[in-house]
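Hey L., structure's done. Input below.
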Amino acid sequence: MSYFNMSKSAYGAYVKEMSPSSTLAGDLLRAFAVGGAICCVGQALFEVYTGAGMAQELAATLVSVTLVFLGALLTGIGVYDDLAKIGGAGTLVPITGFANSVVAPALEFKTEGFVTGTGAKMFIISGPVITYGISASVVYGLIYYLTTAFTKAK
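Output:
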């Protein structure tokens, strides 16, 4: 069978036949379990840090730093990808998912050199996320400012 001479509908049927099936309920449960486990690790770290006598603000900062480190480390040794195969979107928990999105392209392009490979490609995935996050926060800040300015004026 030649794939180049297929009609669009025949090709669509072929793709549907060859694509793995997905159960929505199972995917949701696995994402919830993995994402929840990552969040529980963060909460456990917070409890350990505050239990050691740290202020809550410092403990929260250390939790973020620790989770970024763990996400980068697990990506570097290949464990985070295996976790993502199981948990899917649950591994996109913001802080560990961000670490993964920075480290994964850096590892992928390291053969191209330190500057042109790792340095240039490191933010290829996370760059748009950073841009969107900053843009969304500016829009949210403007909306917040305008709504509070009008309510204070009354």
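The helical segments are 8-18, 24-51, 56-76, 79-87, 94-108, 114-121, 126-153. The mean pLDDT is 83.

-- N.
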